[in-house]
Amino acid sequence: MGHYERIHEFESDLNCTELRIGIVMSCYNIDASKGLLESCTKELEKNGVPSTNILMVKVPGALEIPLALQKMALTDQFDALVALGVVIRGSTYHFEVVSKESASGITAVQLDTGIPVANGILTTETNEQAIERMSQKGTEAARAAIEMVCLLRKLDEEIQ
Q: What is the pLDDT of residue 157?
């Protein structure tokens, strides 16, 4: 099977005590955003990331998240970044614009910089749905950040 023999499932053997994580959180829909932040940081710390290695910045809304992520990524001070926010459908087309453009911006940051960015932006129909999903989404974003750092490091070892 050639190179495919080396592919294996992710196993997190990463020493997370050294990880430096940056978080950008939107202040729009702040209650659910704070819930995302709480569950994300709790999961990072549960996995060994010291709170002193986590830097969190706030931005006004989801459309501002990519620029802050890019600024942080370009410092080379972070192993991974996390985007947190909540976009709730309203009665206008704005929901689609914000959802699509924030996701595109987040993807561009990680592809342009090589720094993994976990997208923890909730897109929901109602505030109640956001509150229901915030804990799970924040936890998933933290895990994705850690897993991507580990995966990229393993790929670096395999490729070199």
A: 83
| Domain edges within the chain | 18-159
Q: C-alpha 109: how far from its chain's center?
A: 11
Q: Tell me how far apart the alpha carbons of residues 87 and 158 are, in angstroms, rounded to a whole number.
A: 39
pLDDT for the residue 51: 95
Residues designated as active site: 94
pLDDT of 13 reads: 58
Low-confidence ranges of the chain (pLDDT < 70): 1-14, 91-93, 160
pLDDT of residue 97: 86
The CATH architecture one would assign to domain 18-159 is 3-Layer(aba) Sandwich (3.40)
The Cα 2–Cα 129 span in angstroms is: 46
Cβ atoms within 10 A of the Cβ of 114, count? 9
Please state, in angstroms and as integers, the Cα–Cα distance from residue 148 to each residue in 34, 68, 95, 98, following that order: 24, 20, 28, 25
Q: b/e map of 44-80 (b: 16 or more CB within 10 Å)?
A: beebebeeebbeeeebeebbbbbebbbebbeeeebbb
pTM for the whole structure: 0.90
Q: 94-113 vs 65-73: helix axis angle to the nearest 10?
A: 10
